[in-house]
Structures are given as structure tokens and as C-alpha cells.
Amino acid sequence: MAPAGLIAHGRGEAFDYLLGEKTTKPALEAIKAAAAAFLTAKKPVISVNGNVAALVAEDIVKLALAAKAKIEVNLFYRSFEREKAIQKLLERAGATEVLGVGNDASARIPELSSERRRVDPRGILRADVVLVPLEDGDRTEALVKMDKKVIAVDLNPLSRTAQKASITIVDNIVRTMPALVKSVEKLKNRDKTSYVQILQNFDNRKNLGESIMLISKRLSKLTEQGRIATLEVE
Ligand code: PTJ
User: Fold this and answer.
1) Which contacts of 119-125 are long-range, i.e. CB under 8 A and separated by 24 or more positions?
2) For 96-131, what is each residue's pLDDT tens digit?
3) What is the per-residue pLDDT across 172-211, written as a single tens digit (0 to 9) for each?
4) By three-state DSSP, how is residue 129 classified?
5) What is the largest CA-CA distance in the chain?
6) Which atom of ligand 1 is nearest to the CA of 74?
7) Is the CB of residue 155 below 6 angstroms from any atom belonging to ligand 1?
8) Fold of 3-233
9) How confident is the model over 55-75, as pLDDT tens digits?
10) Domain locations along the chain
11) Is the CB of residue 125 below 6 angstroms from any atom belonging to ligand 1?
């Protein structure tokens, strides 16, 4: 994990507390939509950074198998040592192919500067659906502009990534990944029209609004119960 990854983790924990540290109803709906998106995809890719590898390497491999998706190392703070370490972790978890390592990340995402724009031409560059857990806003926006369906996992429903993604799962990655694998396996044998219907019925803005409302209601309830101190506001 990059040092900034620890800060990102703490930010996530704060939002997890506000959400009640459980997978909420809107998150479950987003997970179902994400599963449908994976099952309709022609070239799905799972993007893996330091935090994701440290927290859910085995579930990443399970999802790749269930959804026939590729796995790509895609780092904000790129170094060959980190890429190799993450590749090793994923391979130890059972991955047979890991894209985006070293010179394999030879393509560039337009509109992004520095090392953050490097991607694998066999992976994210040509993907139609990309799962980006704990992603930064610039890259999310750039991938959406490339006409990809971007699935984000982000505990902060207000982050730019959460707001800009096509499907945002507002939940902790450690709970989301097993649920997403289960959902893909459950929906797998349905016909394509049911995936299309699930996606048509899903509204990301509405879903994000529901997560924000849940936080707000939870804070009000805790205040009413006297479980959190309140300041007099003029
Ligand atoms: O490994 P690298 O070099 O690619 O760097 C990865 C980090 C995470 C450092 C980088 O992508 C980054 O700085 O991300 P941000 O901009 O801090 O965004 C991370 C988002 O993930 C924040 O909105 C957090 O609330 C959220 N988050 C943190 N932990 C979790 C989480 N969301 C879901 N599950 C978590 N466990």
C-alpha cells in the first residue's frame, strides 16, 4: 500500500462509520447492477491498486473467474517494484494472468498527465466495462469520457469518482467483493434481457442520493437518541 493509501483507508473508515458499517440497500442494488454490467460486457477489466490488492486479492481472482474479466494493475503511484509486488500477491491468490506490469502498460489514457495515464493495451485501453475500486476522480472521468462503463467502489458518496462513475457501489470493498462475486454467480444463468432490464432500472444519481440520505438520517437518529453530542447552532 502507498503511504497515501493509508490516508485513503482512514477516509474510507470514517464514511463506513457514518453508513453503519454494513452493506446498505442502495449498495446492494448497485452491486446487482454491477453484476449485470459484468455479464453484458464483452471485455471487462478489474483495475487493481495497492489498497485493493492488500484488502481483497482473493476475491478479485474469484470475480475475474466468475465474470470472465481480466485483471490489470493500475496504480496512482506507479513504480516497477510496487507493480511486481501486487502481481505476486494476485498470483499467490490464484491469478493466472495479470496485465499492466512494467512495459505491458504501454498505452496512454488521453487527458491525463504523468504515470497515472499508463494502461495495458490488452486491458483497460480496450475494455468496455472497468471496475475501479478506490479510484481517483481524474482517472474515473477520463475513463468515462472514453465511453467505458465505469463501476466504482467508494465509501464516500460525495467523491468525484462516486459522482462521475456509471455505477457507484457505496460500500466497503471488503464487503462488496464477496457480494459481487455471489451476485455474478447468481445472475449468470439468466438470459441477456434480464441484465438489460436490471441496468435500465438502475439510476446512479438516485442511488447516490439514497446513500447520502441514509447518512443524514443515521446522524439525526443518533442525535435524537442522545448518542452524539450536539452544539447549539444559531
Ligand atoms: O495504490 P495506488 O498508488 O494506486 O494509490 C491508491 C490510492 C487509494 C492512494 C489512490 O487511488 C487515492 O489517493 O485515492 P483517493 O483519491 O484517496 O480515493 C480513495 C477513495 O476510496 C476515498 O473516497 C475513500 O473514502 C474510499 N475508500 C477508502 N477505503 C475504502 C474506500 N472505499 C471502499 N472501501 C474501502 N475499504
Assistant:
1) 119/72, 119/74, 120/72, 122/70, 123/45, 123/70, 123/72, 123/99, 124/45, 124/47, 124/72, 124/74, 124/99, 124/100
2) 999 999 999 999 988 777 777 899 999 999 999 999
3) 999 999 999 999 999 999 999 999 999 999 999 999 999 9
4) strand
5) 61
6) 4
7) yes
8) Rossmann fold (3.40.50)
9) 999 999 999 999 999 999 999
10) 3-233
11) no
